[in-house]
Structure prediction request, 435 residues.
Amino acid sequence: MTPVTLLTGFLGSGKTTLLSRLLRSPDFRDTAVIVNEFGAVSLDHDMMDTADETIVTLGNGCLCCQSSSDVARTLAELRRRRAAGEIAFRRVVIETSGLADPVPLLHALGSDGVVAMDFVLAGVVTTVDAVAGMATLDRYTEARRQVAMADVLLLTKLDLDGAMDAALREQLAGLNPSAIVMDAGAWRGAVAEGLLEATAQRPLPLALGARHSHRYSTISILRDRPLPALAVPLFLEGLAAHLGSRLLRLKGLISLTETPGRPMVIHAVQHMIHEPHWLPDWPSADHRSRIVLIGHDLPAEWPEHLLDAIEAETLSATAERADRMSLAL
Amino acid sequence: MDDTEVLSRLHMLLSSSLALWGAGEEVVPTREDDALLLRLPGNAAIVVTSAPVEMREIMRWSVTYPTGRIRRCSSILGVLDAVRDALGCHSDDAMGIRIGVTGVVS
Prediction:
Protein backbone atom coordinates (compact mmCIF):
# COMPACT_ATOMS: atom_id res chain seq x y z
CA MET A 1 0.00 0.00 0.00
CA THR A 2 1.22 3.48 -0.83
CA PRO A 3 0.96 6.04 1.97
CA VAL A 4 -0.67 9.36 1.10
CA THR A 5 0.18 12.46 3.10
CA LEU A 6 -2.04 15.50 2.87
CA LEU A 7 0.12 18.64 3.11
CA THR A 8 -1.94 21.66 3.91
CA GLY A 9 -1.41 25.11 5.38
CA PHE A 10 -2.66 28.63 4.84
CA LEU A 11 -1.58 30.87 1.96
CA GLY A 12 2.06 31.78 2.32
CA SER A 13 2.73 29.42 5.17
CA GLY A 14 5.57 27.70 3.33
CA LYS A 15 4.11 24.51 1.88
CA THR A 16 5.75 24.85 -1.51
CA THR A 17 9.10 25.91 -0.03
CA LEU A 18 8.99 22.88 2.22
CA LEU A 19 8.12 20.54 -0.63
CA SER A 20 10.83 21.99 -2.86
CA ARG A 21 13.39 21.29 -0.15
CA LEU A 22 12.10 17.81 0.49
CA LEU A 23 12.04 16.89 -3.18
CA ARG A 24 15.76 17.62 -3.39
CA SER A 25 16.54 15.43 -0.43
CA PRO A 26 17.52 11.77 -0.84
CA ASP A 27 15.06 10.88 1.93
CA PHE A 28 12.22 12.00 -0.24
CA ARG A 29 13.01 10.11 -3.40
CA ASP A 30 10.24 8.10 -4.99
CA THR A 31 7.52 10.53 -4.00
CA ALA A 32 4.63 11.45 -6.26
CA VAL A 33 3.33 14.94 -5.59
CA ILE A 34 -0.13 16.19 -6.45
CA VAL A 35 -0.16 19.96 -6.44
CA ASN A 36 -3.31 21.98 -6.30
CA GLU A 37 -3.36 25.69 -6.87
CA PHE A 38 -5.94 28.37 -6.43
CA GLY A 39 -5.49 30.73 -9.32
CA ALA A 40 -5.50 31.00 -13.05
CA VAL A 41 -1.82 30.27 -13.56
CA SER A 42 0.06 27.33 -12.11
CA LEU A 43 3.09 28.64 -10.26
CA ASP A 44 3.83 26.14 -7.56
CA HIS A 45 4.65 23.42 -10.06
CA ASP A 46 7.21 25.64 -11.76
CA MET A 47 8.70 26.69 -8.46
CA MET A 48 9.56 23.15 -7.57
CA ASP A 49 13.08 22.53 -8.61
CA THR A 50 12.76 19.07 -10.02
CA ALA A 51 12.42 17.36 -13.32
CA ASP A 52 10.52 14.52 -11.77
CA GLU A 53 7.49 13.53 -13.81
CA THR A 54 5.62 12.44 -10.76
CA ILE A 55 4.49 15.97 -9.99
CA VAL A 56 0.92 16.40 -11.13
CA THR A 57 -0.81 19.77 -11.12
CA LEU A 58 -4.53 19.57 -10.73
CA GLY A 59 -6.77 21.97 -12.56
CA ASN A 60 -7.42 25.46 -11.35
CA GLY A 61 -9.56 25.98 -8.33
CA CYS A 62 -9.47 24.91 -4.79
CA LEU A 63 -9.11 21.16 -4.49
CA CYS A 64 -11.62 20.87 -1.71
CA CYS A 65 -14.26 22.66 -3.76
CA GLN A 66 -13.97 20.30 -6.71
CA SER A 67 -15.51 16.93 -6.99
CA SER A 68 -13.68 14.47 -4.81
CA SER A 69 -13.40 12.24 -7.85
CA ASP A 70 -10.63 14.56 -9.13
CA VAL A 71 -8.35 13.31 -6.41
CA ALA A 72 -9.40 9.73 -6.96
CA ARG A 73 -8.91 10.06 -10.71
CA THR A 74 -5.45 11.53 -10.26
CA LEU A 75 -4.40 8.77 -7.89
CA ALA A 76 -5.81 6.14 -10.27
CA GLU A 77 -3.79 7.67 -13.10
CA LEU A 78 -0.62 7.58 -11.01
CA ARG A 79 -1.34 3.95 -10.24
CA ARG A 80 -1.84 3.14 -13.92
CA ARG A 81 1.39 4.85 -14.93
CA ARG A 82 3.31 3.05 -12.21
CA ALA A 83 1.88 -0.29 -13.29
CA ALA A 84 2.90 0.50 -16.88
CA GLY A 85 6.45 1.20 -15.73
CA GLU A 86 6.32 4.87 -16.78
CA ILE A 87 6.97 6.21 -13.28
CA ALA A 88 8.04 4.88 -9.92
CA PHE A 89 7.03 6.12 -6.51
CA ARG A 90 6.59 4.73 -3.02
CA ARG A 91 4.60 7.52 -1.41
CA VAL A 92 2.28 10.36 -2.42
CA VAL A 93 2.01 13.88 -1.10
CA ILE A 94 -1.03 15.96 -1.94
CA GLU A 95 -0.33 19.65 -1.50
CA THR A 96 -3.57 21.54 -1.11
CA SER A 97 -4.19 25.14 -1.93
CA GLY A 98 -3.83 27.54 0.97
CA LEU A 99 -7.56 27.98 1.23
CA ALA A 100 -8.46 24.32 1.12
CA ASP A 101 -10.61 22.66 3.70
CA PRO A 102 -8.95 19.27 4.25
CA VAL A 103 -12.17 17.50 5.22
CA PRO A 104 -13.59 16.76 1.73
CA LEU A 105 -10.16 15.59 0.59
CA LEU A 106 -9.91 13.18 3.47
CA HIS A 107 -13.39 11.93 2.64
CA ALA A 108 -12.27 11.35 -0.93
CA LEU A 109 -9.34 9.28 0.27
CA GLY A 110 -11.54 7.31 2.59
CA SER A 111 -14.46 6.58 0.35
CA ASP A 112 -13.15 5.61 -3.06
CA GLY A 113 -12.81 1.89 -3.60
CA VAL A 114 -10.32 2.17 -6.46
CA VAL A 115 -8.06 4.46 -4.43
CA ALA A 116 -8.27 2.04 -1.52
CA MET A 117 -6.75 -0.75 -3.60
CA ASP A 118 -3.37 0.95 -3.52
CA PHE A 119 -3.40 3.99 -1.28
CA VAL A 120 -3.82 4.56 2.43
CA LEU A 121 -3.92 7.79 4.37
CA ALA A 122 -0.67 8.40 6.23
CA GLY A 123 -1.78 11.60 7.87
CA VAL A 124 -2.36 15.32 7.63
CA VAL A 125 0.61 17.69 7.85
CA THR A 126 -0.12 21.38 8.24
CA THR A 127 2.42 24.18 7.89
CA VAL A 128 2.02 27.21 10.13
CA ASP A 129 3.85 30.49 9.58
CA ALA A 130 5.65 31.34 12.84
CA VAL A 131 5.62 35.06 12.00
CA ALA A 132 2.09 35.60 10.69
CA GLY A 133 0.49 32.44 12.00
CA MET A 134 -1.17 33.85 15.09
CA ALA A 135 -2.84 36.68 13.19
CA THR A 136 -3.87 34.29 10.43
CA LEU A 137 -5.42 31.89 12.90
CA ASP A 138 -7.30 34.76 14.49
CA ARG A 139 -8.73 35.91 11.18
CA TYR A 140 -9.35 32.88 9.01
CA THR A 141 -11.58 29.91 9.69
CA GLU A 142 -9.83 27.93 6.94
CA ALA A 143 -6.52 28.24 8.78
CA ARG A 144 -8.06 27.04 12.02
CA ARG A 145 -9.66 24.05 10.31
CA GLN A 146 -6.33 23.13 8.72
CA VAL A 147 -4.71 23.17 12.17
CA ALA A 148 -7.59 21.30 13.80
CA MET A 149 -7.34 18.48 11.25
CA ALA A 150 -3.57 18.00 11.49
CA ASP A 151 -1.60 15.08 12.78
CA VAL A 152 1.61 17.09 12.50
CA LEU A 153 1.98 20.87 12.68
CA LEU A 154 5.16 22.18 11.08
CA LEU A 155 6.29 25.64 12.15
CA THR A 156 7.89 27.53 9.28
CA LYS A 157 9.99 30.73 9.28
CA LEU A 158 11.16 30.20 12.83
CA ASP A 159 14.47 31.79 11.87
CA LEU A 160 12.88 35.11 10.93
CA ASP A 161 12.58 38.21 13.13
CA GLY A 162 9.22 38.29 14.82
CA ALA A 163 8.78 34.54 14.85
CA MET A 164 6.57 33.53 17.74
CA ASP A 165 7.44 30.08 18.92
CA ALA A 166 6.07 29.62 22.46
CA ALA A 167 2.97 31.79 22.04
CA LEU A 168 2.11 30.17 18.73
CA ARG A 169 2.56 26.68 20.18
CA GLU A 170 0.16 27.62 22.96
CA GLN A 171 -2.42 28.80 20.44
CA LEU A 172 -1.99 25.64 18.37
CA ALA A 173 -2.39 23.50 21.48
CA GLY A 174 -5.72 25.21 22.08
CA LEU A 175 -6.89 24.22 18.61
CA ASN A 176 -5.36 20.76 18.41
CA PRO A 177 -3.48 19.45 21.43
CA SER A 178 -3.18 15.97 19.95
CA ALA A 179 -0.97 16.99 17.02
CA ILE A 180 2.80 16.69 16.97
CA VAL A 181 4.32 20.20 16.69
CA MET A 182 7.79 20.55 15.22
CA ASP A 183 10.12 22.84 13.33
CA ALA A 184 9.47 22.42 9.60
CA GLY A 185 13.23 22.44 9.05
CA ALA A 186 13.51 19.24 11.02
CA TRP A 187 10.89 17.39 9.01
CA ARG A 188 12.38 14.96 6.54
CA GLY A 189 9.16 13.60 5.10
CA ALA A 190 9.91 10.04 6.01
CA VAL A 191 8.15 10.44 9.33
CA ALA A 192 4.95 10.89 7.38
CA GLU A 193 4.65 7.15 7.29
CA GLY A 194 2.89 5.93 10.37
CA LEU A 195 1.76 9.38 11.43
CA LEU A 196 -1.69 8.34 12.48
CA GLU A 197 -0.40 5.52 14.55
CA ALA A 198 2.27 7.74 16.05
CA THR A 199 -0.21 10.41 17.05
CA ALA A 200 -2.64 7.85 18.44
CA GLN A 201 0.12 6.49 20.63
CA ARG A 202 1.07 9.84 22.04
CA PRO A 203 0.04 10.55 25.58
CA LEU A 204 -3.03 12.65 25.92
CA PRO A 205 -2.64 16.35 26.54
CA LEU A 206 -2.07 17.01 30.22
CA ALA A 207 -5.26 19.01 30.48
CA LEU A 208 -8.00 16.46 30.20
CA GLY A 209 -11.52 17.52 29.46
CA ALA A 210 -12.25 20.32 27.05
CA ARG A 211 -10.05 23.09 25.64
CA HIS A 212 -11.41 25.91 23.56
CA SER A 213 -10.08 28.38 21.03
CA HIS A 214 -12.14 30.35 18.51
CA ARG A 215 -15.14 28.03 18.94
CA TYR A 216 -12.84 25.10 18.18
CA SER A 217 -12.49 22.72 21.01
CA THR A 218 -10.83 19.49 21.97
CA ILE A 219 -12.36 16.96 24.28
CA SER A 220 -10.20 14.23 25.76
CA ILE A 221 -11.71 11.13 27.29
CA LEU A 222 -9.67 8.79 29.45
CA ARG A 223 -10.99 5.42 30.65
CA ASP A 224 -9.35 3.17 33.21
CA ARG A 225 -11.53 0.16 32.45
CA PRO A 226 -11.50 -1.64 29.07
CA LEU A 227 -14.54 -1.01 26.92
CA PRO A 228 -16.69 -3.78 25.45
CA ALA A 229 -16.02 -3.88 21.69
CA LEU A 230 -19.69 -3.36 20.88
CA ALA A 231 -19.67 -0.01 22.67
CA VAL A 232 -17.19 1.51 20.20
CA PRO A 233 -19.30 1.48 17.00
CA LEU A 234 -22.36 2.56 19.00
CA PHE A 235 -20.39 5.48 20.42
CA LEU A 236 -19.17 6.49 16.97
CA GLU A 237 -22.70 6.22 15.59
CA GLY A 238 -24.01 8.42 18.40
CA LEU A 239 -21.32 11.03 17.75
CA ALA A 240 -22.13 11.13 14.04
CA ALA A 241 -25.87 11.35 14.65
CA HIS A 242 -25.75 14.15 17.20
CA LEU A 243 -22.56 16.11 16.53
CA GLY A 244 -22.56 15.78 12.75
CA SER A 245 -20.30 18.31 11.06
CA ARG A 246 -19.28 19.87 14.39
CA LEU A 247 -16.91 16.96 14.85
CA LEU A 248 -13.84 17.36 12.67
CA ARG A 249 -11.61 14.58 13.87
CA LEU A 250 -11.52 11.75 16.32
CA LYS A 251 -8.50 9.71 17.29
CA GLY A 252 -8.42 6.98 19.82
CA LEU A 253 -6.30 4.28 21.35
CA ILE A 254 -8.77 1.96 23.00
CA SER A 255 -8.47 -0.91 25.42
CA LEU A 256 -11.12 -3.51 24.62
CA THR A 257 -12.39 -6.15 27.03
CA GLU A 258 -12.05 -8.72 24.25
CA THR A 259 -8.42 -7.91 23.34
CA PRO A 260 -6.85 -6.37 26.44
CA GLY A 261 -3.26 -6.84 25.30
CA ARG A 262 -3.77 -5.22 21.91
CA PRO A 263 -5.09 -1.66 21.81
CA MET A 264 -7.36 -0.68 18.96
CA VAL A 265 -6.52 2.45 16.98
CA ILE A 266 -9.50 4.35 15.61
CA HIS A 267 -9.47 7.40 13.43
CA ALA A 268 -12.37 9.38 12.01
CA VAL A 269 -12.82 12.45 9.88
CA GLN A 270 -16.23 13.86 10.69
CA HIS A 271 -18.62 10.95 10.24
CA MET A 272 -16.22 8.91 8.11
CA ILE A 273 -14.68 6.18 10.22
CA HIS A 274 -11.52 4.65 8.86
CA GLU A 275 -11.00 0.96 9.32
CA PRO A 276 -9.72 0.33 12.84
CA HIS A 277 -6.58 -1.65 13.41
CA TRP A 278 -4.92 -3.25 16.38
CA LEU A 279 -1.40 -2.61 17.63
CA PRO A 280 0.60 -5.71 18.53
CA ASP A 281 1.17 -4.33 22.02
CA TRP A 282 0.66 -1.25 24.16
CA PRO A 283 3.23 1.44 23.38
CA SER A 284 3.74 2.24 27.08
CA ALA A 285 2.83 1.04 30.56
CA ASP A 286 -0.27 3.21 30.42
CA HIS A 287 -3.04 0.89 29.24
CA ARG A 288 -5.91 3.30 29.62
CA SER A 289 -8.17 4.07 26.68
CA ARG A 290 -7.82 7.57 25.36
CA ILE A 291 -10.06 9.29 22.86
CA VAL A 292 -9.55 12.80 21.50
CA LEU A 293 -12.33 14.69 19.73
CA ILE A 294 -11.59 17.88 17.81
CA GLY A 295 -14.31 20.10 16.44
CA HIS A 296 -16.20 23.32 16.77
CA ASP A 297 -18.89 24.09 19.32
CA LEU A 298 -18.49 20.67 20.87
CA PRO A 299 -20.49 20.16 24.06
CA ALA A 300 -17.89 19.58 26.76
CA GLU A 301 -19.49 16.77 28.73
CA TRP A 302 -21.87 15.17 26.25
CA PRO A 303 -19.42 12.74 24.55
CA GLU A 304 -18.34 11.29 27.89
CA HIS A 305 -21.97 10.96 29.03
CA LEU A 306 -22.75 9.20 25.75
CA LEU A 307 -19.90 6.76 26.25
CA ASP A 308 -20.88 6.18 29.90
CA ALA A 309 -24.45 5.34 28.95
CA ILE A 310 -23.52 3.11 26.01
CA GLU A 311 -20.92 1.28 28.08
CA ALA A 312 -23.47 0.64 30.85
CA GLU A 313 -26.11 -0.59 28.44
CA THR A 314 -23.68 -2.83 26.59
CA LEU A 315 -22.39 -4.40 29.80
CA SER A 316 -25.94 -4.89 31.03
CA ALA A 317 -27.05 -6.49 27.76
CA THR A 318 -24.02 -8.79 27.75
CA ALA A 319 -24.70 -9.92 31.32
CA GLU A 320 -28.39 -10.54 30.57
CA ARG A 321 -27.48 -12.60 27.53
CA ALA A 322 -25.05 -14.68 29.58
CA ASP A 323 -27.78 -15.25 32.18
CA ARG A 324 -30.22 -16.41 29.51
CA MET A 325 -27.66 -18.77 28.03
CA SER A 326 -26.83 -20.28 31.41
CA LEU A 327 -30.54 -20.81 32.10
CA ALA A 328 -30.98 -22.46 28.71
CA LEU A 329 -28.21 -24.98 29.40
CA MET B 1 -24.09 -3.17 35.52
CA ASP B 2 -27.62 -3.12 36.99
CA ASP B 3 -30.71 -1.36 35.66
CA THR B 4 -30.45 1.44 38.21
CA GLU B 5 -26.98 2.37 37.01
CA VAL B 6 -27.99 2.19 33.35
CA LEU B 7 -30.99 4.44 34.01
CA SER B 8 -28.81 6.83 35.99
CA ARG B 9 -26.36 7.15 33.10
CA LEU B 10 -29.18 7.61 30.61
CA HIS B 11 -30.53 10.35 32.87
CA MET B 12 -27.19 12.19 32.73
CA LEU B 13 -26.98 11.69 28.99
CA LEU B 14 -30.48 13.04 28.42
CA SER B 15 -29.74 16.08 30.59
CA SER B 16 -26.69 17.02 28.55
CA SER B 17 -28.42 16.06 25.28
CA LEU B 18 -31.22 18.54 25.96
CA ALA B 19 -28.59 21.26 26.25
CA LEU B 20 -26.99 20.04 23.02
CA TRP B 21 -30.33 20.23 21.23
CA GLY B 22 -31.11 23.67 22.63
CA ALA B 23 -33.99 22.46 24.81
CA GLY B 24 -32.18 22.47 28.14
CA GLU B 25 -33.92 25.53 29.55
CA GLU B 26 -37.45 24.37 28.85
CA VAL B 27 -37.16 20.71 29.72
CA VAL B 28 -35.42 19.04 32.65
CA PRO B 29 -35.51 15.27 32.93
CA THR B 30 -36.40 13.86 36.32
CA ARG B 31 -36.24 10.34 37.57
CA GLU B 32 -39.39 8.76 38.91
CA ASP B 33 -39.06 5.16 40.08
CA ASP B 34 -37.97 3.17 37.03
CA ALA B 35 -38.71 5.87 34.50
CA LEU B 36 -37.34 9.17 33.27
CA LEU B 37 -39.84 11.95 32.86
CA LEU B 38 -39.35 15.00 30.67
CA ARG B 39 -42.03 17.56 31.51
CA LEU B 40 -42.86 19.95 28.70
CA PRO B 41 -44.58 23.33 28.90
CA GLY B 42 -48.35 22.82 29.11
CA ASN B 43 -48.11 19.83 31.44
CA ALA B 44 -47.30 17.38 28.66
CA ALA B 45 -44.52 14.86 29.19
CA ILE B 46 -42.22 12.41 27.48
CA VAL B 47 -41.70 9.22 29.46
CA VAL B 48 -38.75 6.86 29.02
CA THR B 49 -39.03 3.42 30.62
CA SER B 50 -36.85 0.36 30.41
CA ALA B 51 -38.41 -2.79 28.99
CA PRO B 52 -38.95 -5.90 31.11
CA VAL B 53 -35.91 -8.18 31.11
CA GLU B 54 -37.73 -10.91 29.17
CA MET B 55 -38.39 -8.47 26.31
CA ARG B 56 -34.87 -7.16 25.93
CA GLU B 57 -33.75 -9.37 23.09
CA ILE B 58 -36.25 -7.39 21.04
CA MET B 59 -36.46 -4.00 22.73
CA ARG B 60 -34.81 -2.37 25.69
CA TRP B 61 -36.68 0.92 26.03
CA SER B 62 -40.05 2.55 25.45
CA VAL B 63 -40.45 6.23 24.78
CA THR B 64 -43.97 7.60 25.22
CA TYR B 65 -44.60 10.80 23.30
CA PRO B 66 -46.85 13.57 24.67
CA THR B 67 -49.44 12.41 22.10
CA GLY B 68 -49.53 8.95 23.64
CA ARG B 69 -47.64 7.35 20.79
CA ILE B 70 -45.12 4.76 22.01
CA ARG B 71 -41.83 4.15 20.28
CA ARG B 72 -39.85 1.02 21.15
CA CYS B 73 -36.07 1.29 21.08
CA SER B 74 -33.39 -1.37 21.07
CA SER B 75 -30.67 0.86 22.48
CA ILE B 76 -29.91 4.16 24.15
CA LEU B 77 -29.19 5.63 20.73
CA GLY B 78 -32.79 4.91 19.79
CA VAL B 79 -33.97 6.65 22.96
CA LEU B 80 -31.97 9.76 22.04
CA ASP B 81 -33.45 9.73 18.57
CA ALA B 82 -37.00 9.27 19.85
CA VAL B 83 -36.74 11.99 22.51
CA ARG B 84 -35.27 14.43 20.03
CA ASP B 85 -38.07 13.60 17.62
CA ALA B 86 -40.71 14.01 20.34
CA LEU B 87 -39.27 17.41 21.21
CA GLY B 88 -39.16 18.45 17.57
CA CYS B 89 -35.44 19.21 17.84
CA HIS B 90 -34.40 18.16 14.39
CA SER B 91 -30.83 18.87 13.40
CA ASP B 92 -29.41 19.62 10.00
CA ASP B 93 -26.10 18.49 11.44
CA ALA B 94 -27.07 14.87 11.88
CA MET B 95 -25.09 12.44 9.77
CA GLY B 96 -25.12 8.72 9.38
CA ILE B 97 -21.89 6.98 10.13
CA ARG B 98 -19.81 5.87 7.16
CA ILE B 99 -17.10 3.31 7.26
CA GLY B 100 -14.07 4.28 5.21
CA VAL B 101 -12.61 1.77 2.83
CA THR B 102 -9.03 2.71 3.53
CA GLY B 103 -6.95 1.67 6.47
CA VAL B 104 -4.07 3.54 7.98
CA VAL B 105 -0.39 2.97 7.55
CA SER B 106 0.98 0.74 10.23
In short: The first helix of chain A runs from residue 15 to 24. Chain A touches chain B through 58 residues (CB under 8 Å). The two ends of chain A are 48 Å apart (CA to CA). Chain A has a mean pLDDT of 79.
